[in-house]
Amino acid sequence: MVNDEGGEVNKNRSKLTGYDFYRSTLGSPRYVVAPMVDQSELAWRMLCRRYGAELCYSPMYHANLFATDPKYRKDALQTCSEDRPLIIQFCGNDAQQILEAALLAQDHCDAVDINLGCPQAIAKRGHYGSFLQDEWELLTEIVSTLHAKLSVPVTCKIRIFEDLEKTIRYAKMLEAAGCQLLTVHGRTREQKGPLTGVADWNYIKELRQNIKIPMIANGNILGLEDVHRCLEETGVDGVMSAEGNLHNPALFQGVSPPVWQMASEYLELVQLHPCPSSYIRGHLFKLFHHIMNIRQNSELRQFLATANQLVQFQTVVQQVQAKYEPFHKGEVPYELEEMAAGSEEEKLPLAPWLCQPYIRASPESHRQKIAEKVREAEDPNRAKRQYFDNAGNEISRKRMKKLRRRQRRPNKTEAQIHQRHERRLEYCSECANPMGSKCEFQLCRVCCKDRCYTNDRDCPGHGILIKSRRAKAKQFEEHNTGEQNHDVPKNPDSDPTIAAVEAQDPL
Question: What is the C-alpha to C-alpha distance for residues 46 and 41, in angstroms, rounded to an integer?
């Protein structure tokens, strides 16, 4: 999709850089909504803009899929004229691949961002995000390629190293390569999940003093007061919020509206800008986080967990509003409700029906709980945990988990479950295992694999391609052999053609 002609056109188009780009194109934003996978989609961005967000990022897109899969690109690239300024973020580890994706996106955004901060296991497997932070030559190539060939600026989002000096050199390297806006998450790659801890603003402050391009801070943002404190303490140009924004999309206005108000407005925007039901469910669970941890709301929580239609999500919002709005208006006095078992919620600063941040437990307390569980597991006198069904009969832990899964699917009747377990199966012609439904030989996978090895066959139904791989290996071997023969200089004494020519012409 990328050609030399398109690259030259983009290269020759003038574009603003640095603070000129930050002020003229972006409008000097201070309040920024982070790129969040499956969560910063168009409907959510429009809700955040309604409540004070001045710059939004798209979710992280996979550069390879975006460049090569039209369906993925169409589903991902949702925006509108009001959705500006907008920065589209990509992940990847190949400069040309990211460039192909960025060229397809540049006309729909104000800048392209490279994700160098994701610390999750999927980023490690895919070799992108923060797992590229030690490959400075590769990052220099990626940033400089995009800077040279895009018509919009390239930006980066990073995490810090333990070593402050290395972090400063890292930021300077990206700046020198062509990065025009740097977002710094004040946590290391290892600070994630229960070990998230507190972001270090001192690192961000030091970076601000050592680079010349605009800079955005990320981390520890739970409310508007944190935004202003971060701006003052670090000297950055803007502040980005992720999890705090998900719990309260009105964070940048410094207000805590009722959760049903935010949820209702979001669902109205979803009708205008549709998105997958998993995105909607995720947003409602974040907005209703504190309410859904109340024991009396367990059935509503289960209903939300299985909802997959807009009308079902609207029903959840209506039920939450019907229950808590009288308390909010002061028509009925509110008494504290019992939290669900296993909930780590402490006393909330606000009523549970108001948008407010979720405060994680400290890494120290998490390590302490893990140590306690280890000690309990090693205690020979510990009481064995028992599980019982609804009739009071003792069952195994595996059976208990199956029963709980059934309870999370209330639409399925016992008759349906029984019928599912008694469905008639066709069996392998060579053993007692069930036959693969798409197997060409009417065998199970194990027998099919043996058959393919023995008879040099393929079975697309099982995805076993023995014949094809052997043919490719043979073709590759013949190709290499041919190249070696071509490269080896011929011996005239052993080549009859050359010997005959030399016999006729002794010179």
Answer: 9
**Which residues are within 8 A (CB) of 438 and not within 5 positions of it... i.e. 6 or more apart?**
460, 461, 462
189 Cβ partners below 8 Å, 6+ apart?
119, 130, 131, 133, 159
H or E segment and range at residue 217: strand 215-218
Q: What is the pLDDT of residue 61?
A: 97
| H runs (alpha helix) in 69-152 | 70-76, 95-105, 121-126, 136-149
Q: What is the pTM of this model?
A: 0.74
Strand partners, 108: none
Alpha carbons within 13 angstroms on the beta-carbon side of residue 228 total 7
Measured CA to CA, the distance from residue 142 to residue 475 in angstroms comes to 35
Q: Are 158 and 116 in contact (CB under 8 A)?
A: yes
Spatial neighbors of 133 by CB under 8 A, at least 6 apart, are: 116, 139, 158, 159, 161, 170, 189
Using the predicted structure, report yes or no on whether residue 505 has a pLDDT greater than 60. Answer: no
**31-33 vs 182-185, strand pairing mode:** unpaired
Torsions phi, psi of 388, nearest 5? -135, 150
How many other C-beta atoms can be found within 10 angstroms of the C-beta atom of residue 75? 11
- Kindly tell me if the per-residue pLDDT of 494 is higher than 50: no
Positive or negative torsion for Cα 185, 188, 193, 199: negative
Pinpoint the alpha helices (H) of 273-355: 277-287, 289-292, 298-306, 310-328
Q: Above 70 in pLDDT, residue 423?
A: no
What are the catalytic residues? 118
For the stretch 36-51, pLDDT in tens is: 999 999 999 999 999 9
Q: Which long-range contacts (CB under 8 A, 24 or more apart) does 308-315 make?
A: 308/277, 308/281, 309/277, 310/267, 310/270, 310/271, 310/277, 310/280, 313/267, 313/277, 313/280, 313/281, 313/284, 314/267
Which among 16, 34, 35 has a CA at the least distance from the CA of 26? 16
Q: What is the distance between the alpha carbons of residues 348 and 284, in angstroms, rounded to a whole number?
A: 19
pLDDT in tens, 128-144: 999 999 999 999 999 99
- Residue 269 pLDDT > 50, yes or no? yes
